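Section 5.1 Outputs to date
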Amino acid sequence: MSLPASLSAWLLVLLCAVSGGYCLLRARRSERAARGGAAGEALMGFGMAVMAVPSGIGPWGPGILLTVFSGAVLHALWLLRSGVHHAHHLVGSLAMAYMALTMADGHGHGGGPPLVTGALLLYFAGYVLLGGARLATAGGGGQPVVGGAPVMPAELTRACRLAMGMGMLAMLLSL
């Protein structure tokens, strides 16, 4: 038995919004060095939630999303100064800008060059498989410090990233 398309789309919206909310909380509680990456992930999660809304986002939506994700591309390029480990932010931002561009061109969720879509699908499929394997083999999380700030376990951060990777893969599959 399969879920109706609109229900699965709303579940994707919920997954992306919760992931974005967690990343925003993580950005708020992180040290300055980690704040930029977490904020970028929060933007990605909320943007993915908006893009996944099944009823569409109106005629103005794709242009606004393209502008926001073009800004996210610039932010990801800025993050690359501190190391190549931020390259995933750049690929994710480019993928979101690409999907917004296909929506702005009037293709809705059904357009874009197959070669670009295929390359992004391969990247995110590999990201999800690798992220899932890392999460499955991760050790136990840290214990919270009594009287201190709550500890954000690394596994929860990995699960958040994995959820957003799966969301990106699902949206790319709908192109």
